[in-house]
Amino acid sequence: xxxxxxxxxxxxxxxxxxxxxxxxxxxTGNCVQQPTSCPSKRTKPCSGTSFRYVEETKVxxxxxxxxxxx
Length: 70
Prior knowledge:
Layout: E1 3-13, E2 19-22, E3 51-53, E4 59-63
Antiparallel strand pairs: 1-2, 1-3, 1-4
C-alpha cells in the first residue's frame, strides 16, 4: 500500500518574521520537530524562540516499502 510521508513544512519566527523549512527526522518516525531557535542569517542574528507553522505549506511524498524474500 502507498503511504503519504511528510517531506517538510515552513515555520515563521514570530520575532523577525523569517520563514524557513523544517524537515522530518527519520530516526523519530518521520516526525517534524518544533524548531528551538531562529536560523536567520541576517547581519544581526535573531534570538527568537517562538515560531508559528505557516498554513498550507506542508509537502508530502508518496512512500511505498517493498520487501523481497528469497
